[in-house]
Task: structure prediction
Amino acid sequence: MDLGLKGRACVVTGASRGIGAETARLLCAEGADVLLVARDEERLNEAATAARQAGEGSGQVEILSLDVTDEDAGECMLATAIARFGQLDVLVNNAGAAQWRQIDDVPDRDWYVQYELNVMAPMRAMRAAAPTMAEAGWGRIVNVCSTAGKRPSAAMPEYSVAKAAELSLSRLFADRYAKSGVLVNAICPGPVKSEMWMEPGGLLDQAQEMTEAGSREEALAEAGSKRPIGRLAEVGEIAGAIVFLCSERASYVAGAAWSVDGGTVQVII
Ligand SMILES: NC(=O)c1ccc[n+]([C@@H]2O[C@H](COP(=O)([O-])OP(=O)(O)OC[C@H]3O[C@@H](n4cnc5c(N)ncnc54)[C@H](OP(=O)(O)O)[C@@H]3O)[C@@H](O)[C@H]2O)c1
Result:
């Protein structure tokens, strides 16, 4: 299936690793131009190299090192995409961070940190990008939210609330821009074996500590067993759905919040 992404100019945030890096790689493999955005320049360069290899020279790959919560980050990403590619067609708001914690233990500041990362940053990015896409008459925006935004996770309180707000934000932009050809959608992954889970000190190690599982493998199996599908997702299983929503083929999908969670959130609407 031709996804119609060849020559499309894309920005992916949180692209230095995990779901974002894989999304950038798959977009490049489709012949798109991609601007990879995150804070860590070294990791961005590694992700850009993998994306270039996947693209086999068909599209351009650029990096931009910034913190997406900076007030001017949205404008900066738009300006960089236009300077490098001449346009901006696709925006993937993917940057994120999480840790396990009980609601009584979350300091005020951390509620604001998650709100900045999951609401203000995507809002500013969409506010910058969507009018340009609307002027061109074509655009795709994908907001990477979470199952925790649909059904709050007791052990991720501030993250869950911010992701729920991001779903609402995504729907508002979808309604505002659908008639202009700019289609805005959300993806709600369940647990994914990205660095967020697998890096030392990440969610898996924290889960092992919380559950007193005997090993990482045991903790991983236990986390997987809570899902109808019986395991965590691979990053490519999330990135594939994101790339589809970025594509020409998703031409009648707007305002959706697609679960890609192995059946975790048991709702049928
Ligand atoms: N993994 C899961 O189980 C899971 C489940 C549901 C939803 N999600 C969501 O999926 C998205 C991607 O998660 P992931 O699992 O791929 O996480 P990850 O492996 O930890 O990668 C997160 C990415 O976001 C970037 N980032 C974080 N804060 C940033 C900031 N302030 N400014 C710019 N970039 C920032 C990181 O790069 P730098 O550190 O270099 O900036 C990194 O590239 C997130 O929104 C996450 O909430 C993940």
Observations:
- The two ends are 27 Å apart (CA to CA).
- Residues 108-136 form the longest helix (29 residues).
- The mean pLDDT is 97.
